[in-house]
């Protein structure tokens, strides 16, 4: 990877209560307070009830304190803060493959070095550069003979692999499975730091782990997917719903040769909005003991994905001998530009906390974990309590109450609107508390990030540089977009251009800097380094369109169990890096970025995700077996259930 509910009666059963909910401490509380409200209505215009429910400051604090003490259960008509589906009950046994076989297949896949670099030319223009992918395709063909005999294979732009497993019911939208064949480069200077050489595919029997580049990202999932197909064909399975398999070959360099062409081909054949569900690589399952986990085991399917924009900042100035330098060279000015952008980076505010967003739901799901910050836990519970309704019910509930004689519906509606204003104010206050309590590492999913990764300029120590450039990587939050980032750059850098007499061109357009010296000392230019991507549309998690999510999460909970036998917690999450799925938004809104592995502790002691894009990448062999069970259940379920 480049870089991580409604009721379903009739489909999967009713959703379980929120993971963090507890039994109420006061039975019948709602009935009591509603009775109080009915009595209070007789004095509405005197204002006693209104003042109690709508006053600010201390009243809100009393409200929050009451919520923490009573922990009133959520009204049935409101969505739980972290709904969990009942584990799926498959109609048949999941497929299984011997772990030794899976380990050997992954090892052989790792041994084929499919490294890609940035900005490589098309494979049609430079076929030799891409030759390793011919070898990888041969490996797949020999390792999975039944799949290659039964499935249709189309090669897209030379090395993109598009398999079609036709279903018996042609009226059903297909399931689309994705992974990528390529891997990131290994820094030669780090070779001595690897426990085992990166392209040996070493099978570590003691730690039940396969080591090597691509072990996690993401040959493990490609091998598991193909192993699932092979095993299901062996036992005679025929899908009801067509299943497509799209394997790109340059995901690590943004996907222009692979995923871009594969998505176009699928849309050409099947049309827009033609896919029922898309499953790509993504966020994993973390065991409770994993260094990245909050102290509980949790599955983290990505249902949102940040946008991406890489920007080049260039400043051109006059050259000359360095014995007579100006106050600031182009290198110094670019450094100031980078510092200004870092100082003005996105900072967390209450408006970033979007209701029902994956990032906020994720925090609600794990808030009771032992490793969770206590102050943040309290703030999240305040938000949960404030979001439910006022303590007397929301406006619609008030309007539906039987009213005493002499109190009309208009008065009840007025009360309801006042209560709702108080509710919205309390939600805002709770979100502000969350912002104050949230540690830096948990803020990132909510923010547009700024990373200055490369800077260069100058050619000789005694020569003034005529130009200098910096390259910045941005992952764009769901609450933002490319246009907003453009405006941020212009607003941030215009004062610098004005102060130092630079003309300013931003994204192909001249910027009015004002000031008589503008342009006299040089030029500031900002532009896209490569194609950018807006944040992906959010996958529906609640309401009438949530059936794919409900099914997907229920299969996770049937596949992975905690040590006590309970289903693993599923917490929807933000994919902070980027995946090939970004090219497929025209095909479906139901996109799940998920990396099945094992809920067991990583026996290497490093952590399951340690090594991705760096040294000592590895994957637990048990995770390959669990992935096969998950994929096989999914392949069966999508034919049996309505999506």
From TrEMBL:
<protein>
    <recommendedName>
        <fullName>Peptidase M20 dimerisation domain-containing protein</fullName>
    </recommendedName>
</protein>
<keyword id="KW-0862">Zinc</keyword>
<feature type="binding site">
    <location>
        <position position="217"/>
    </location>
    <ligand>
        <name>Zn(2+) 1</name>
    </ligand>
</feature>
<dbReference type="GO" id="GO:0004181">
    <property type="term" value="F:metallocarboxypeptidase activity"/>
</dbReference>
<dbReference type="Pfam" id="PF01546">
    <property type="entry name" value="Peptidase_M20"/>
</dbReference>
<dbReference type="InterPro" id="IPR011650">
    <property type="entry name" value="Peptidase_M20_dimer"/>
</dbReference>
<feature type="binding site">
    <location>
        <position position="613"/>
    </location>
    <ligand>
        <name>Zn(2+) 1</name>
    </ligand>
</feature>
<dbReference type="GO" id="GO:0000328">
    <property type="term" value="C:fungal-type vacuole lumen"/>
</dbReference>
<keyword id="KW-0378">Hydrolase</keyword>
<dbReference type="InterPro" id="IPR002933">
    <property type="entry name" value="Peptidase_M20"/>
</dbReference>
<dbReference type="InterPro" id="IPR047177">
    <property type="entry name" value="Pept_M20A"/>
</dbReference>
<dbReference type="InterPro" id="IPR001261">
    <property type="entry name" value="ArgE/DapE_CS"/>
</dbReference>
<feature type="binding site">
    <location>
        <position position="217"/>
    </location>
    <ligand>
        <name>Zn(2+) 2</name>
    </ligand>
</feature>
<keyword id="KW-0645">Protease</keyword>
<dbReference type="InterPro" id="IPR036264">
    <property type="entry name" value="Bact_exopeptidase_dim_dom"/>
</dbReference>
<dbReference type="Pfam" id="PF07687">
    <property type="entry name" value="M20_dimer"/>
</dbReference>
<feature type="domain" description="Peptidase M20 dimerisation">
    <location>
        <begin position="303"/>
        <end position="494"/>
    </location>
</feature>
<dbReference type="InterPro" id="IPR017141">
    <property type="entry name" value="Pept_M20_carboxypep"/>
</dbReference>
<comment type="similarity">
    <text>Belongs to the peptidase M20A family.</text>
</comment>
<feature type="binding site">
    <location>
        <position position="180"/>
    </location>
    <ligand>
        <name>Zn(2+) 2</name>
    </ligand>
</feature>
<dbReference type="GO" id="GO:0051603">
    <property type="term" value="P:proteolysis involved in protein catabolic process"/>
</dbReference>
<keyword id="KW-0479">Metal-binding</keyword>
<feature type="binding site">
    <location>
        <position position="252"/>
    </location>
    <ligand>
        <name>Zn(2+) 1</name>
    </ligand>
</feature>
<feature type="active site">
    <location>
        <position position="182"/>
    </location>
</feature>
<feature type="binding site">
    <location>
        <position position="280"/>
    </location>
    <ligand>
        <name>Zn(2+) 2</name>
    </ligand>
</feature>
<dbReference type="GO" id="GO:0046872">
    <property type="term" value="F:metal ion binding"/>
</dbReference>
<feature type="active site" description="Proton acceptor">
    <location>
        <position position="251"/>
    </location>
</feature>
């Amino acid at each position: 990877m480049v870089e991580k509910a409604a009721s379903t009666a009739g489909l999967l059963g009713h959703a379980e209560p929120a993971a963090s909910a507890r039994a109420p401490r006061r039975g019948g509380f709602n009935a009591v307070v509603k009775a109080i409200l009915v009595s209070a209505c007789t004095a509405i215009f005197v204002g006693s009830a209104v003042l109690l429910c709508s006053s600010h400051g201390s009243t809100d604090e009393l409200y929050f304190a009451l919520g923490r003490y009573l922990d009133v259960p959520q009204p049935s008509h409101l969505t739980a803060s972290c709904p969990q589906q009942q584990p799926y009950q498959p109609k048949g046994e999941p497929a299984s493959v011997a772990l030794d076989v899976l380990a050997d297949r992954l090892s052989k896949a790792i041994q084929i070095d499919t490294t890609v670099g940035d900005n490589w030319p098309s494979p049609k223009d430079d076929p030799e550069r891409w030759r390793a992918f011919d070898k990888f395709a041969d490996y797949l063909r020999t390792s999975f003979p039944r799949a290659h005999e039964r499935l249709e294979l189309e090669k897209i732009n030379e090395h993109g692999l598009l398999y079609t497993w036709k279903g018996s019911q042609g009226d059903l939208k297909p399931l689309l499975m994705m992974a990528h064949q390529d891997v990131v480069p290994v820094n030669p200077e780090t070779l001595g730091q690897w426990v085992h050489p990166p392209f040996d595919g070493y099978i570590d029997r003691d730690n039940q782990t396969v080591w090597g580049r691509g072990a996690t990202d993401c040959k493990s999932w490609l091998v598991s997917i193909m192993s699932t197909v092979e095993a299901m064909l062996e036992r005679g399975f025929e899908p009801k719903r067509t299943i497509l398999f799209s394997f790109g070959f340059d995901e690590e360099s943004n996907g222009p040769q692979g995923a871009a062409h594969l998505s176009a081909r699928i849309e050409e054949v099947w049309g827009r909005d033609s896919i029922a569900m898309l499953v790509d690589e993504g966020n994993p399952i973390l065991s409770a003991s994993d260094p990245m986990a909050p102290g509980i085991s949790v599955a983290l399917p990505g249902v949102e994905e940040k946008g991406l924009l890489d920007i080049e900042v260039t400043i051109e100035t006059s050259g000359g001998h360095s014995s007579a330098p100006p106050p600031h060279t182009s290198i110094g000015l670019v450094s100031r530009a980078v510092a200004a952008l870092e100082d003005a980076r996105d900072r967390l505010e209450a408006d970033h906390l979007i209701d029902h967003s994956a990032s906020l739901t994720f925090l609600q799901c794990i808030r009771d974990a032992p490793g969770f910050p206590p102050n943040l836990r309290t703030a999240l519970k305040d938000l949960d309590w404030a979001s439910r309704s006022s303590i007397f019910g929301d406006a619609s509930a008030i309007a539906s109450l039987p009213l005493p004689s002499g109190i009309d519906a208009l008065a009840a509606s007025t009360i309801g609107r006042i209560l709702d204003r108080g509710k919205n104010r309390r939600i805002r206050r709770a979100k502000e508390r969350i912002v104050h309590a949230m540690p830096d590492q948990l803020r990132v999913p909510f923010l547009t990030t700024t990373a200055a990764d490369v800077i260069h300029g100058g050619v000789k120590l005694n020569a003034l540089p005529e130009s200098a450039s910096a390259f910045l990587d941005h992952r764009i939050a769901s609450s933002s977009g490319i246009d907003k980032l453009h405006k941020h750059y212009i607003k941030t850098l215009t004062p610098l251009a004005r102060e130092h007499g630079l003309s300013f061109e931003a994204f192909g357009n001249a910027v009015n800097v004002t000031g008589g010296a503008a342009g006299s000392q040089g030029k500031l230019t900002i532009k896209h380094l490569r194609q950018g991507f807006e944040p992906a549309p959010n996958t529906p998690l609640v309401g009438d369109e949530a059936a794919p999510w409900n099914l997907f999460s229920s299969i996770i909970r049937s596949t992975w169990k905690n040590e006590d036998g309970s289903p693993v917690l599923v917490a929807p999450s933000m994919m902070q890096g980027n995946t090939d799925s970004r090219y497929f938004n025209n095909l479906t809104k139901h996109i799940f970025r998920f990396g099945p592995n094992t809920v067991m502790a990583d026996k290497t002691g490093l952590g399951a995700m340690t090594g991705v894009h760096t040294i000592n990448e590895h994957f637990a062999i048990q995770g390959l077996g669990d992935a096969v069970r998950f994929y096989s259940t999914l392949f069966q379920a999508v034919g049996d259930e309505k999506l």
